[in-house]
Hints:
Helix content: 10-25%
CATH topology: Pnp Oxidase, Chain A
Structural class: alpha+beta
CATH architecture: Roll
Strand order of the largest sheet: 1-2-3-6-5-4
Number of domains: 1
CATH class: Mainly Beta
Number of helices: 3
CATH superfamily: Electron Transport, Fmn-binding Protein, Chain A
Radius of gyration: 15 Å
Number of strands: 7
Largest sheet: 6 strands, antiparallel, barrel
Shape: globular
Strand content: over 45%
Amino acid sequence: xxxxxxxxxxxxxxxxxxxxxxxxxxxxxxxxxxxxxxxxxxxxxxxxxxxxxxxxxxxxxxxxxxxxxxxxxxxxxxxxxxxxxxxxxxxxxxxxxxxxxxxxxxxxxxxxxxxxxxxxxxxxxxxxxxxxxxxxxxxx
Length: 140
């Protein structure tokens, strides 16, 4: 099994009570590192990940200023860190595909609500950790 296959296996089984969670690391307005747990909405292998957020959130505004970010996934004692770039998207087709009516409490105008933003993360490289071993890899 390749390191990329091992990493994807960790990502696919990573969840908290059945909810797929990723940790997003970025910099705040002062350049200080920070991390936030987000629900992983969708991914295309190791390359592209989507998360729902609010336009009004500080995270969205920080990503607009500096999209250099990382993701971290942890399952048991295996971990995967992905380095890459995040951007904010308002693609109506994507927002509609992620939409659930229980989101109306947050976005009363539906999937076209201006406060309903998507974070699109695109990975360029990563690191797989298991049994005190680290292995770097490229994401293609």
